[in-house]
Amino acid sequence: MTNSEPNSGTRLGADLYGLWRAGRDNLPTVAAVYSTAGDALDAAAVGVAGAFVRSGNLPGVPYGPAYQPWVELHGILAKICHDTADNIEATADALCVATVEYARADYEAASEFARLLEVNGEPRADIG
Q1: Tag placement on the chain: N or C end, fewer CB within 10 Å?
Q2: CA 41 → CA 24, 44, 128, distances in Å?
């Protein structure tokens, strides 16, 4: 194999740096957005039941008919956000593991990957 082939050597090292950056920065940043959205949904559920209270002396449950569908929708949306954040974080971890394993298999790629880390610095997620 020559160094110009994309699956070995310095080109692979550059690709590994891209995977590492995705696993350490890009995907964790996206996961944080979903996690924040899930947290906001969780916070919205606190105390909202009062908005659905029926006035007067109506028999039955104290909440109007829109309350239960809202609770169900809230639960679905919050779960989607939290599960998506968890799945993206797991994908980010898998990319980092794959990067390390590929680097172990190709010394030239590992050298280029290490050089790019030194030049560009360790990627960090922007999770504000």
Answers
A1: C
A2: 26, 5, 19
